[in-house]
Amino acid sequence: MISPTLFAPRTALKDCTLEQWYRLLNKYVFFWLTRERLRTLLCARTYRDHPHVVLTLETLPFVRKYEQRIALSPMNSGNTQPIAHERSPETFKKMRDYPFQERARRGDYYQVVELAVEGGADLTESVLSVDLMQCAGDGMRVLHNISRK
User: Fold this and answer.
1) Domain-embedded: residue 86
2) Which residues lie closer than 8 Å to 74 by C-beta, 6 or more apart?
């Protein structure tokens, strides 16, 4: 569950209570879509000194398999640091309803921030590699390759 100390919900939530927001987030499994977003997470103050297991997926078969359960978000929905952008259940959109063209003007880093799969996902057929990674300066490095397809 998201830590209340990392989330300033009372200033950010619209059309739902804090409990409803947490229940919504906990229905999903979340994925980063770019290396840049992964680097941002790995190099965040809270995480930079710790290694993380990173799964790299073959996206096309994965998206085809879970298309009906995928929701996209234009923000990191569980974080309000440093700014508590407004969020609501409408933050998550099905792929067919996501405003790709409108968001494209913001650049790749901001077009789609999160991909979430409702109810979880079986990754066994989609995983290309499993790596132990950690922040390294302004980048990230593979400490150990655990598995590669």
Assistant:
1) yes
2) 91, 103, 110, 111, 112, 113
